[in-house]
Design brief:
18 strands, three-stranded mixed β-sheet, about 25% helix
Protein backbone atom coordinates (compact mmCIF):
# COMPACT_ATOMS: atom_id res chain seq x y z
CA UNK A 1 0.00 0.00 0.00
CA UNK A 2 1.02 3.61 -0.50
CA UNK A 3 1.55 6.20 2.24
CA UNK A 4 -1.56 8.12 1.11
CA UNK A 5 -3.72 5.02 1.65
CA UNK A 6 -2.11 4.33 5.02
CA UNK A 7 -2.80 7.91 6.13
CA UNK A 8 -6.52 7.50 5.42
CA UNK A 9 -6.57 4.22 7.36
CA UNK A 10 -4.79 5.78 10.33
CA UNK A 11 -7.32 8.63 10.36
CA UNK A 12 -10.24 6.20 10.10
CA UNK A 13 -8.88 4.10 12.97
CA UNK A 14 -8.84 7.05 15.34
CA UNK A 15 -5.86 5.71 17.34
CA UNK A 16 -3.07 7.61 15.55
CA UNK A 17 -1.31 4.42 14.45
CA UNK A 18 -1.63 1.59 11.94
CA UNK A 19 -0.04 -1.83 12.27
CA UNK A 20 1.51 -3.60 9.27
CA UNK A 21 1.28 -7.40 9.46
CA UNK A 22 2.62 -10.12 7.19
CA UNK A 23 0.58 -12.96 5.69
CA UNK A 24 0.93 -14.93 8.91
CA UNK A 25 -0.47 -12.12 11.03
CA UNK A 26 2.91 -11.29 12.55
CA UNK A 27 3.69 -7.64 13.18
CA UNK A 28 6.08 -6.35 10.52
CA UNK A 29 6.02 -2.68 11.47
CA UNK A 30 3.97 0.28 12.64
CA UNK A 31 2.98 3.58 11.08
CA UNK A 32 2.07 6.54 13.26
CA UNK A 33 0.23 9.60 12.03
CA UNK A 34 3.36 11.61 12.79
CA UNK A 35 5.61 9.31 10.74
CA UNK A 36 3.27 9.62 7.77
CA UNK A 37 3.30 13.41 8.04
CA UNK A 38 7.09 13.45 8.29
CA UNK A 39 7.12 11.43 5.06
CA UNK A 40 5.20 14.29 3.46
CA UNK A 41 8.11 16.59 4.34
CA UNK A 42 10.59 14.24 2.66
CA UNK A 43 8.77 13.28 -0.55
CA UNK A 44 6.78 15.41 -3.01
CA UNK A 45 4.32 12.53 -3.50
CA UNK A 46 2.65 10.20 -1.02
CA UNK A 47 2.66 7.35 -3.51
CA UNK A 48 5.75 5.85 -1.88
CA UNK A 49 5.23 2.38 -0.32
CA UNK A 50 4.56 2.16 3.40
CA UNK A 51 7.57 -0.11 3.79
CA UNK A 52 9.74 2.97 3.15
CA UNK A 53 8.12 4.80 6.07
CA UNK A 54 7.10 2.24 8.67
CA UNK A 55 9.10 1.46 11.78
CA UNK A 56 10.58 -1.98 11.25
CA UNK A 57 11.45 -2.35 14.94
CA UNK A 58 8.17 -1.22 16.46
CA UNK A 59 7.51 -0.76 20.14
CA UNK A 60 5.06 -3.50 21.17
CA UNK A 61 3.36 -4.66 24.35
CA UNK A 62 3.15 -8.30 25.35
CA UNK A 63 -0.20 -9.97 25.79
CA UNK A 64 0.51 -10.38 29.53
CA UNK A 65 1.66 -6.79 30.11
CA UNK A 66 -0.46 -4.91 32.63
CA UNK A 67 -1.53 -1.27 32.63
CA UNK A 68 1.64 -0.09 34.36
CA UNK A 69 3.90 -1.70 31.74
CA UNK A 70 1.82 -0.36 28.84
CA UNK A 71 1.69 3.13 30.34
CA UNK A 72 5.48 3.09 30.77
CA UNK A 73 5.96 2.11 27.11
CA UNK A 74 3.65 4.82 25.83
CA UNK A 75 5.26 7.47 28.03
CA UNK A 76 8.88 6.50 27.34
CA UNK A 77 8.41 6.51 23.57
CA UNK A 78 5.71 9.23 23.46
CA UNK A 79 3.45 7.13 21.25
CA UNK A 80 -0.30 7.44 20.68
CA UNK A 81 -0.75 3.64 20.80
CA UNK A 82 1.17 0.35 20.79
CA UNK A 83 0.20 -3.01 19.27
CA UNK A 84 -0.27 -5.94 21.61
CA UNK A 85 1.38 -9.16 20.39
CA UNK A 86 1.32 -12.80 21.35
CA UNK A 87 4.28 -14.72 19.94
CA UNK A 88 4.78 -11.91 17.41
CA UNK A 89 1.18 -11.96 16.20
CA UNK A 90 -1.11 -8.98 16.53
CA UNK A 91 -3.89 -9.52 19.08
CA UNK A 92 -4.86 -5.96 20.01
CA UNK A 93 -3.96 -2.30 20.41
CA UNK A 94 -3.50 -0.21 23.57
CA UNK A 95 -4.01 3.53 23.27
CA UNK A 96 -2.75 6.46 25.31
CA UNK A 97 -6.40 7.59 25.54
CA UNK A 98 -6.91 4.80 28.09
CA UNK A 99 -4.64 6.56 30.61
CA UNK A 100 -5.62 9.85 32.24
CA UNK A 101 -2.85 12.44 32.42
CA UNK A 102 -0.36 10.43 30.38
CA UNK A 103 0.44 13.47 28.22
CA UNK A 104 0.40 15.91 31.11
CA UNK A 105 -2.08 18.76 31.65
CA UNK A 106 -4.85 19.20 29.08
CA UNK A 107 -4.28 21.70 26.27
CA UNK A 108 -6.15 24.98 25.94
CA UNK A 109 -6.86 26.86 22.72
CA UNK A 110 -6.81 30.50 21.69
CA UNK A 111 -8.74 31.46 18.55
CA UNK A 112 -7.90 34.81 16.96
CA UNK A 113 -11.13 36.40 15.76
CA UNK A 114 -10.45 40.11 16.23
CA UNK A 115 -9.53 41.10 12.67
CA UNK A 116 -11.68 43.31 10.45
CA UNK A 117 -11.50 41.11 7.32
CA UNK A 118 -10.97 44.10 5.04
CA UNK A 119 -10.48 42.03 1.89
CA UNK A 120 -13.94 40.49 2.26
CA UNK A 121 -15.79 43.79 2.46
CA UNK A 122 -18.71 44.50 2.08
CA UNK A 123 -19.57 41.09 3.64
CA UNK A 124 -17.55 41.89 6.75
CA UNK A 125 -19.14 45.32 7.20
CA UNK A 126 -22.07 43.55 8.87
CA UNK A 127 -20.60 40.25 10.11
CA UNK A 128 -17.05 39.47 11.30
CA UNK A 129 -15.30 37.05 8.96
CA UNK A 130 -15.17 34.12 11.46
CA UNK A 131 -18.99 34.34 11.75
CA UNK A 132 -19.58 33.90 8.02
CA UNK A 133 -21.43 30.68 7.26
CA UNK A 134 -20.00 27.80 5.26
CA UNK A 135 -22.00 24.60 4.83
CA UNK A 136 -24.59 25.60 7.43
CA UNK A 137 -22.15 26.56 10.21
CA UNK A 138 -19.99 29.57 10.88
CA UNK A 139 -16.25 29.29 10.31
CA UNK A 140 -15.42 29.75 13.99
CA UNK A 141 -18.02 27.18 15.11
CA UNK A 142 -16.35 24.60 12.88
CA UNK A 143 -13.00 25.35 14.50
CA UNK A 144 -14.38 25.20 18.05
CA UNK A 145 -16.26 21.92 17.47
CA UNK A 146 -13.11 20.29 16.11
CA UNK A 147 -11.13 21.52 19.10
CA UNK A 148 -13.71 20.06 21.47
CA UNK A 149 -13.58 16.74 19.62
CA UNK A 150 -9.80 16.71 20.17
CA UNK A 151 -10.21 16.98 23.93
CA UNK A 152 -9.85 20.75 24.39
CA UNK A 153 -12.14 21.96 27.18
CA UNK A 154 -11.20 25.65 27.55
CA UNK A 155 -11.21 27.83 24.43
CA UNK A 156 -10.36 31.54 24.55
CA UNK A 157 -11.60 33.86 21.81
CA UNK A 158 -9.42 36.92 21.27
CA UNK A 159 -12.03 39.44 20.11
CA UNK A 160 -12.00 43.05 18.96
CA UNK A 161 -13.99 43.93 15.83
CA UNK A 162 -17.74 43.44 16.51
CA UNK A 163 -16.80 41.61 19.71
CA UNK A 164 -20.37 41.49 21.06
CA UNK A 165 -21.57 39.44 18.09
CA UNK A 166 -19.36 36.52 19.07
CA UNK A 167 -20.76 36.31 22.60
CA UNK A 168 -24.31 36.68 21.30
CA UNK A 169 -23.78 33.87 18.79
CA UNK A 170 -21.58 31.46 20.77
CA UNK A 171 -22.44 32.13 24.42
CA UNK A 172 -20.56 29.99 26.91
CA UNK A 173 -19.67 27.33 24.32
CA UNK A 174 -21.69 24.51 25.92
CA UNK A 175 -23.55 23.58 22.69
CA UNK A 176 -20.15 23.31 20.99
CA UNK A 177 -18.74 21.00 23.66
CA UNK A 178 -16.28 23.45 25.24
CA UNK A 179 -16.04 26.25 27.81
CA UNK A 180 -15.71 29.55 25.95
CA UNK A 181 -13.89 32.53 27.43
CA UNK A 182 -13.56 35.96 25.84
CA UNK A 183 -10.45 38.15 25.97
CA UNK A 184 -10.55 41.55 24.32
CA UNK A 185 -7.74 43.23 22.43
CA UNK A 186 -8.19 46.93 23.18
CA UNK A 187 -5.32 47.55 20.77
CA UNK A 188 -3.72 45.36 18.13
CA UNK A 189 -1.31 42.94 19.84
CA UNK A 190 -0.57 40.47 17.04
CA UNK A 191 -0.98 36.70 16.91
CA UNK A 192 1.46 36.12 19.76
CA UNK A 193 1.01 39.32 21.75
CA UNK A 194 -2.67 38.54 22.32
CA UNK A 195 -1.61 35.56 24.45
CA UNK A 196 -0.62 37.99 27.21
CA UNK A 197 -4.36 38.61 27.71
CA UNK A 198 -4.87 35.11 29.12
CA UNK A 199 -5.84 35.38 32.80
CA UNK A 200 -3.00 33.02 33.77
CA UNK A 201 -0.31 30.96 32.11
CA UNK A 202 -1.92 27.61 31.25
CA UNK A 203 -0.50 24.42 32.74
CA UNK A 204 -0.63 22.52 29.45
CA UNK A 205 0.19 23.28 25.80
CA UNK A 206 -1.52 26.20 24.09
CA UNK A 207 -2.99 25.83 20.61
CA UNK A 208 -3.26 29.12 18.74
CA UNK A 209 -5.23 29.34 15.51
CA UNK A 210 -6.46 32.03 13.19
CA UNK A 211 -10.24 32.23 13.26
CA UNK A 212 -10.76 32.32 9.49
CA UNK A 213 -9.46 28.83 8.59
CA UNK A 214 -11.65 26.10 7.13
CA UNK A 215 -10.07 22.69 7.67
CA UNK A 216 -10.97 19.24 8.94
CA UNK A 217 -7.54 18.90 10.51
CA UNK A 218 -7.50 16.39 13.36
CA UNK A 219 -6.21 18.60 16.17
CA UNK A 220 -5.58 15.50 18.27
CA UNK A 221 -2.98 14.42 15.69
CA UNK A 222 -1.35 17.84 16.01
CA UNK A 223 -1.23 17.52 19.81
CA UNK A 224 0.22 14.00 19.49
CA UNK A 225 2.89 15.27 17.08
CA UNK A 226 3.83 18.10 19.43
CA UNK A 227 3.98 15.77 22.45
CA UNK A 228 6.01 13.13 20.60
CA UNK A 229 8.67 15.61 19.46
CA UNK A 230 8.91 17.42 22.79
CA UNK A 231 9.65 20.81 21.20
CA UNK A 232 8.84 24.31 22.38
CA UNK A 233 6.60 25.15 19.41
CA UNK A 234 4.98 23.17 16.61
CA UNK A 235 3.97 25.09 13.48
CA UNK A 236 1.30 23.63 11.21
CA UNK A 237 2.20 23.91 7.54
CA UNK A 238 0.53 23.38 4.19
CA UNK A 239 2.06 22.66 0.82
CA UNK A 240 1.87 25.50 -1.69
CA UNK A 241 2.70 25.16 -5.37
CA UNK A 242 3.89 28.11 -7.44
CA UNK A 243 4.27 27.88 -11.21
CA UNK A 244 7.18 29.86 -12.62
CA UNK A 245 6.07 31.16 -16.06
CA UNK A 246 9.61 31.20 -17.47
CA UNK A 247 12.46 28.87 -18.21
CA UNK A 248 14.60 28.75 -15.05
CA UNK A 249 18.35 28.55 -15.57
CA UNK A 250 20.42 26.17 -13.50
CA UNK A 251 23.93 27.58 -13.38
CA UNK A 252 27.28 27.03 -11.69
CA UNK A 253 28.90 30.47 -11.65
CA UNK A 254 28.56 31.52 -15.31
CA UNK A 255 28.14 28.01 -16.74
CA UNK A 256 24.65 27.02 -17.82
CA UNK A 257 23.87 23.46 -16.75
CA UNK A 258 20.23 23.17 -17.84
CA UNK A 259 17.01 25.06 -18.42
CA UNK A 260 13.94 23.94 -16.49
CA UNK A 261 10.98 25.07 -18.57
CA UNK A 262 8.15 26.57 -16.47
CA UNK A 263 8.83 24.52 -13.33
CA UNK A 264 6.53 24.27 -10.33
CA UNK A 265 7.95 25.17 -6.93
CA UNK A 266 6.86 23.19 -3.87
CA UNK A 267 7.00 25.14 -0.63
CA UNK A 268 5.72 24.61 2.89
CA UNK A 269 3.88 27.70 4.09
CA UNK A 270 2.51 28.75 7.45
CA UNK A 271 -1.00 27.34 8.05
CA UNK A 272 -1.81 29.79 10.85
CA UNK A 273 -2.05 27.08 13.54
CA UNK A 274 0.51 26.61 16.32
CA UNK A 275 1.02 24.61 19.51
CA UNK A 276 3.19 26.24 22.21
CA UNK A 277 4.57 25.01 25.47
CA UNK A 278 3.37 27.36 28.24
CA UNK A 279 6.99 28.28 29.14
CA UNK A 280 7.25 30.03 25.76
CA UNK A 281 4.84 32.73 26.91
CA UNK A 282 7.51 34.27 29.15
CA UNK A 283 9.11 35.68 25.97
CA UNK A 284 6.12 37.96 25.44
CA UNK A 285 6.18 41.55 26.75
CA UNK A 286 2.80 42.92 27.81
CA UNK A 287 1.04 45.56 25.77
CA UNK A 288 3.36 45.18 22.77
CA UNK A 289 2.39 43.93 19.31
CA UNK A 290 4.20 40.64 18.63
CA UNK A 291 3.56 38.38 15.67
CA UNK A 292 4.00 34.64 15.89
CA UNK A 293 6.97 34.68 13.46
CA UNK A 294 8.77 37.07 15.87
CA UNK A 295 8.11 34.78 18.83
CA UNK A 296 9.28 31.73 16.86
CA UNK A 297 12.48 33.55 15.88
CA UNK A 298 13.17 34.37 19.54
CA UNK A 299 12.58 30.76 20.60
CA UNK A 300 14.88 29.41 17.88
CA UNK A 301 17.55 31.99 18.81
CA UNK A 302 17.43 30.68 22.37
CA UNK A 303 18.30 27.22 21.07
CA UNK A 304 14.91 25.62 21.67
CA UNK A 305 13.43 23.26 19.09
CA UNK A 306 10.57 24.20 16.78
CA UNK A 307 8.93 21.57 14.56
CA UNK A 308 6.86 21.69 11.37
CA UNK A 309 3.63 19.67 11.24
CA UNK A 310 2.32 19.07 7.69
CA UNK A 311 -1.44 19.46 7.30
CA UNK A 312 -2.50 16.75 4.85
CA UNK A 313 -6.22 17.39 5.26
CA UNK A 314 -8.16 20.01 3.25
CA UNK A 315 -7.24 23.52 4.42
CA UNK A 316 -8.39 26.95 3.29
CA UNK A 317 -7.59 30.46 4.46
CA UNK A 318 -10.68 32.56 3.81
CA UNK A 319 -8.75 35.68 2.87
CA UNK A 320 -10.31 36.78 -0.40
CA UNK A 321 -13.79 36.77 -1.98
CA UNK A 322 -12.52 34.27 -4.56
CA UNK A 323 -11.36 31.82 -1.88
CA UNK A 324 -14.62 32.26 0.04
CA UNK A 325 -16.62 31.44 -3.08
CA UNK A 326 -14.42 28.43 -3.85
CA UNK A 327 -14.97 26.95 -0.38
CA UNK A 328 -18.72 27.67 -0.49
CA UNK A 329 -18.92 25.79 -3.79
CA UNK A 330 -16.87 22.88 -2.43
CA UNK A 331 -19.28 22.44 0.49
CA UNK A 332 -22.37 22.98 -1.67
CA UNK A 333 -21.24 20.18 -4.02
CA UNK A 334 -20.21 17.81 -1.24
CA UNK A 335 -16.50 17.94 -2.07
CA UNK A 336 -15.73 18.96 1.54
CA UNK A 337 -17.50 18.31 4.81
Amino acid sequence: AAVATAFERVKAGGRGVAVVVDEGGRVAGTLTDGALRRAALRWPSLDVPVTDVMSRRPVVAGVDDGDDEVRALLTAHRLPAVPVVDDGRLVGLRSSDEFDGLRGPAPVAVVMVGGRGQRLRPLTDKVPKPLLRIGGRTIVERIIRNLGAAGVVDVYLAVNYMAAMFEERLGDGAPLGVRLHYVREEEVLGTAGALTLLPEVPAGPVLVTNGDLVTNLDYRALFDFHWHHGGAITVASVEHHTSVPYGVLRVAEDHLLAIDEKPTRRDLVNAGIYVLQPEVLRHLPRGVEVGMPDLIADVIAEGLSVHAFPVLEPWSDIGTPEEFERVLLAFATGEEE
